[in-house]
Amino acid sequence: MRSTPKGFRLHIGIFGRRNVGKSSLLNAMTRQAVSIVSEIAGTTTDPVEKPMELLPIGPVLFIDTAGIDDVGVLGELRVKRTRQVFDRTDVGILVTAAGEWGPFEQAILAELAERKTPAIVVFNKSDLGKPDAALLKDLKGRKIPIVHTVASKGEGILDLREALIKAAPEDFINAPAIIGDLVRAGELVMLVVPIDLEAPKGRLILPQVQAIRDVLDVDAYCLVVKERELRDALDRLKRPPALVVTDSQGFLKVAGDTPKDIPLTSFSIVFARAKGDLNVFVEGALAIEQLRPGDRILVAEACSHHPIGDDIGRVKIPRWLTQYVGGTMDFTHVQGHDFPDDLSTYKLVIHCGACMWNRREMLSRLLRCRAAGVPVANYGMTIAYTLGILERALGPFPAALEMYHRLKGR
Asked: pTM to 2 decimals?
């Protein structure tokens, strides 16, 4: 299961004060010395990730965080990185001990509750004392699962595993499809992929591989071509494909080569639906119409890859937007889990397809944008809008297309 992408794993965040046994708990759960265990508070400095298989859930990713009560300048940086973990946590484990409960623990539960993230409270070191009865009654009244452990001895770990299995969110167990629900068994999907400088040597990039697997899982089949060979491949088919999915950068040529009666979209757009909320991105794409020269735009890339000279996020999208708006704008770029605390100065956020992430982190970013009143668009939808083909790119998604028409007609 080590090869399972992070985006397909249930993300389990482990939170709590320093030195309550978070690292010991992770080591006991994984049966490995993943995190350093010490009596010195603050030993864990950065989030530690450990992928494993947790049956019957499947692949999970444990994230051991630094103590949320860390102090000092360095402590503030550690806490900031810990808070980033909230954005991608599907299930939160709050680790504490008898007599340790206070504002820190309440704040962690409140953070998880605000995000509608299931929480489990673990009272570790339970051999040294029992938690307050009133506190236990309060947690039970809020229907928060409680587990008592002695992580250093492995006690209570089976109870914690059982609690995790029960807490797994429904949208993880029945995750949204990428392409599989758009075609029926026996139909053909044509995937148009570029082989350019950003393509990894000897293999396809992750979203292309995941799309192929999703098609095969519904007993459909796919044909993979480069954009230059698309028209010839279509001419050779006895019957047309049920769907064409292209890399967003080739949208214009692929749209020109694909007959109008064949549904067409892009990898970025199908991942926008699978990882986020397609309707939110429709609103964001239409907000492009309100942009003016000088506006600030935030471009967010989930991957931390080294950009090439003609990078899509740093070069192509800014160029297409500048041409569409008719003047220079101020573009800011972020990568990985970095994201500005203050979004209020931006007129638009443009996000990649987030194929490397779990859905929770993408939804967290959408909520932050909505709270700041800043529209958020997706790479593929931004490209399609600036090229004048967004309506066609939304064709495979009737609800999103209806929303597009409704907002367009306001």
From this structure: 0.76
> How many domains are there within the chain?
2
- Condensed to tens digits (0 to 9), the pLDDT of residues 236-254 reads 999 999 999 999 989 999 9
∠ at Cα 150 (147, 156), nearest 5°? 45
pLDDT at 48: 84
Task: Encode pLDDT of 152-198 as tens digits.
Answer: 899 999 999 999 988 988 777 667 789 999 999 999 999 999 876 56
At residue 11, what are phi and psi to the nearest 5 degrees? Answer: -90, 120
Measured between alpha carbons, how far is 89 from 230 in angstroms, rounded to an integer? 40
The reply to whether 380 and 336 lie within a common domain is yes
Angle at 150 between CA 148 and CA 156, to 5 degrees: 50
Which amino acid is located at 340 in the chain?
P
Give the CA distances from residue 94 to residues 68, 79, 117, 244, 260, in Å, rounded to whole numbers and listed in that order. Answer: 11, 15, 12, 45, 53
Close Cβ partners of 67 (under 8 Å, ≥ 6 residues apart): 16, 17, 18, 19, 20, 22, 41, 42, 44, 78, 82
Do 339 and 300 meet the contact criterion of CB atoms below 8 Å apart? yes
Q: Please check whether residues 187 and 163 belong to one and the same domain.
A: no
Q: Does residue 1 lie within any of the structural domains?
A: no
Please state the three-class secondary structure of 324-391 as a single string. Answer: HHCCCCEEEEEECCCCCCCCCCCCEEEECCCCCCCHHHHHHHHHHHHHHCCCEEEHHHHHHHHCCCHH
In a domain, 335, yes or no: yes
The string of pLDDT tens digits covering residues 56-98 is 778 899 998 876 555 443 345 556 677 788 888 999 999 998 8
CATH number at residue 325: 3.40.50.11420
**Domain check: are 223 and 345 in the same one?**
yes
